[in-house]
Every structure is written in structure tokens, then in C-alpha cells.
Amino acid sequence: MKPFDLKEAKAGKPVQTREGKSVTILSFNRKHDTHKVVALVDLDGHTEAVIPYTEEGKFQVDKEFPGDIVMAPCPDVGLHVDDFVDFGTSYSNPPPGEKDARWFLFLKRLPANLQCEFNDKIKDLKLFCDYEGSRFRCTGASRMGDVWLTPNFNQDVGYTKRIDVRHCSNWGLKP
Fold first, then answer.
1. Calpha distance 162→133 (Å, rounded)
2. Domain count, the chain
3. Which of 52, 80, 99, 150 could form a disulfide with 35 if both were Cys (CB 3.0 to 4.6 A apart)?
4. Predicted confidence (pLDDT) per residue in 91-139, tens digit
5. Contact of 162 with 148, CB cutoff 8 Å
6. Which of 44, 71, 98 is the last residue of a domain?
């Protein structure tokens, strides 16, 4: 894991927490003695928190913490979930279940206020896929382009894995 680099972060390079959670830096110049960086951290795919950090990306000055900011790994050029929603993986012959996956992920990429407004129509919609030989429930997608997976078929929000959509297969509305 590459340590937080203030200069690279200011240049727009992606960052995340040490445990892989999505981070958006809001400010680099908070008026504070030690915690000058302010970031919005995705806690569980459903809730975000505004958290102050040191210029070294530390949450706690004196020790390493899972919520510290680090530089995000440079991903291989993957398929952004929005491109998957717009175009799928095949123009002429999509795999079975892909249209359902594209519709579900389209709904999950709507702004939160629209998701809330239409929740009564979409709350019972569930999506499943195979990843690395196991079946997972897909609970959403991030603005970073990845999809959220959990092995718990009853979990409605949150995730245990965030992966590139192209690594999913065998999409379906049933486990």
C-alpha cells in the first residue's frame, strides 16, 4: 500500500482508506494544528462521514489506523460501471442476466434523492452474480466505477468486496 502523498492527492490522484473504503478529499487547508485535511469517507456504501486527517493522511497522530488515508492502487483499465450500464459487454448477444444487471446498476447509480423517491418500486429488486467461483449479492455501485458484493444474500446495503464489474458473471435476479 502506497503511503498518502499530499502533493499527489492535491494533483487529483485517487485515495482510499487503508481498509479500501472510498475517500473524497474536501479540503487540504483546514484551520487546525494537526488535522488540516478534511475528507468524506464512505463507511458502508450507505453512509458517509466527514473526517479530519493530518497532512500525512493519519486519523490518529501517533499510530496507524485502518481509517488512515493512503494512495489508491492504480487500477488496470477496467470497465466502469456506468459504461457497463450504457453499453454492456456485448452489443449483439449479451449474456443471460446482463440486461437485469444493467437495469439494477442503473437504478443504484441514481442520485440518493431519486433512489429514496422510488424506493417503494425498487426495494425488492435483488441482483446476484458469480465472482471467483462463488455466488454473491450485488448491493450497489460507486462513483469510482466498482460494484459492491456481499456473500450475505439478505444484506440490502453495504458490501464485503468492491470489484471491477467485468469480473462478475452469471448475473441474475435469483441466488
1. 16
2. 2
3. 52
4. 567 788 999 999 999 999 988 888 888 888 888 899 999 999 999 999 9
5. yes
6. 71
- pLDDT value at residue 95: 84
What stretch of H or E contains 113? helix 112-117
The rounded distance, in Å, linking the Cα atoms of 163 and 143 is 13
For residue 40, the enclosing domain spans 2-71
Residue 75 has pLDDT above 60, yes or no: no
The backbone torsions φ and ψ at residue 69, rounded to the nearest 5 degrees and listed phi first, read -85, 135
* Beta-carbon-side half-sphere exposure of residue 167 (alpha carbons within 13 Å): 18
Q: Is residue 133 part of a domain?
A: yes
Residue 76 domain-assigned (yes or no)? no
Angle at CA 22, nearest 5°, toward 21 and 28? 115
Q: Are residues 92 and 62 in the same domain?
A: no
Please check whether residues 131 and 58 belong to one and the same domain.
no
Amino acid 74: pLDDT: 66
pLDDT greater than 90 at residue 174? yes
- Compute the average pLDDT of residues 6-28: 90
Residue 116 placed within a domain = yes
Beta strands 48-53 and 146-150 are unpaired
Residue 100 lies in a domain: yes
